[in-house]
Amino acid sequence: QVQLVESGGGLVQPGGSLRLSCAASGRLRSINAMGWYRQTPWKQRELVATITSGSFTNYADSMKGRFTISGDNAKGTVYLQMNSLKPEDTAVYYCNAADYRSGYDYWGQGTQVTVSS
């Protein structure tokens, strides 16, 4: 089992920045990738960015150039630096840890990001 705890969400003005953090505990050796997803009431949960144990990163097209993911899967940490935030980035952001061997995904409780003037 892996437990995930996010932090760093909040209210920010358009054009501003936020940094999200996620800390994992438990069976860290089972983690092959960590990442961030987001969800709004009117949209399905969508990929933001992921990072593998080999530090390979993947971003959704709309986040490229504005968001940066970093972290260390072995230590169970993942961060998301979000710059040039837009109102449409408003969502609940969820931390994810993927265990490729079992095919199981672990999720945090989510952290609210609101971009508004």
Topology:
Layout: E1 2-7, E2 10-12, E3 18-26, E4 33-40, E5 43-52, E6 57-59, E7 67-72, E8 77-82, E9 91-99, E10 104-107, E11 111-115
Parallel strand pairs: 2-11
Antiparallel strand pairs: 1-3, 3-8, 4-5, 4-9, 5-6, 7-8, 9-10, 9-11
Counting H and I runs of at least 4 residues, what is the number of helices?
0
Q: Hey, roughly how much beta strand do the residues contain?
A: over 45%
Assembly state (oligomeric): single chain
What pattern of helices and strands is seen along the backbone? EEEEEEEEEEE
Q: How can the largest sheet be summarized?
A: 7 strands, mixed
Low-pLDDT runs = none
Distance between the termini: 40 Å
Structural Rg: 13 Å
Describe the global form.
globular
Helix content: under 10%
What features would you describe in this structure?
The chain is mainly β. The chain is built from no helices and eleven strands. It has strands at residues 2-7, 10-12, 18-26, 33-40, 43-52, 57-59, 67-72, 77-82, 91-99, 104-107, 111-115. Strands 2, 4, 5, 6, 9, 10 and 11 form a seven-stranded mixed sheet that branches. A four-stranded antiparallel sheet has the order 1-3-8-7, with no helix packed on it. A hairpin with a 4-residue loop joins β9 (91-99) and β10. It is globular.
